[in-house]
Amino acid sequence: MPRTPGPEADPKSQARRVVRALVKLYPTVVCALDHRDAFELLVATVLSAQCTDERVNRVTPALFARYPDPGRLAEADLAEVERLIYQTGFFRAKAKNLLGLAKVLVERHGGAVPADLDALTALPGVGRKTAHVVLGNAFAVASGVVVDTHVKRLAFRLGLTGRTDPEHVERELAAILPRKHWIDFSHRLIAHGRSTCGALRPRCDACPLRPLCPRSGLDEPASAPDAAEIGAITPRRGRRGRLS
Length: 244
Ligand code: SF4
Fold this sequence. Notes:
single chain, Endonuclease III, domain 1, 11 helices, 50% helix, elongated, disordered N terminus, binds iron/sulfur cluster
């Protein structure tokens, strides 16, 4: 029976194996939040907190048509923004943060989104995850690994971390992954979480990663992988990853 690596396996070696397999499975990945520039991505990412990307993408066309840049959004009527983003949930806090961050962009950054982690995380409603999303996808700057609920869950199950708090997971992944993979690694894990490794019912028996996955945290034993499976990871069409 082929041995699957357990939590004791060298994390960097395990990370290399997982990256290789994910690149084959999901060769092309893109940000799932529709946007045309850094400002739109920043707004969409703020809206994606506790909301699906699909729902955000339904809301943002009208929002961006009405407020196409930080200057217009900074002058917006709060109640109107609340109405436009209502479907994304937590609309009052999100609307307040959007107006607040637009004002800071206008007053301190000349109406542009700064390509800087500290400047981004100083904006209202913008944490490290949102800043990494914007820097990675709008500026191609690998400032960190985006850790959302899918990334957190899969990194643990795949034996890449023994922790579940996002800040630790982010640090551990950054330590074991080559920086050139930081941006797309999150997209790929998210795609795999959506397609196969769901929170409640991971489909281990059908999972191409099964030969290298210790399935950490899952109680019931999955059926042992066939030896032939180890080389049977075949490319699939590019998947869109969720960023929140
Ligand atoms: S579906 Fe199962 S085998 Fe595949 S990555 Fe998730 S836990 Fe591992």
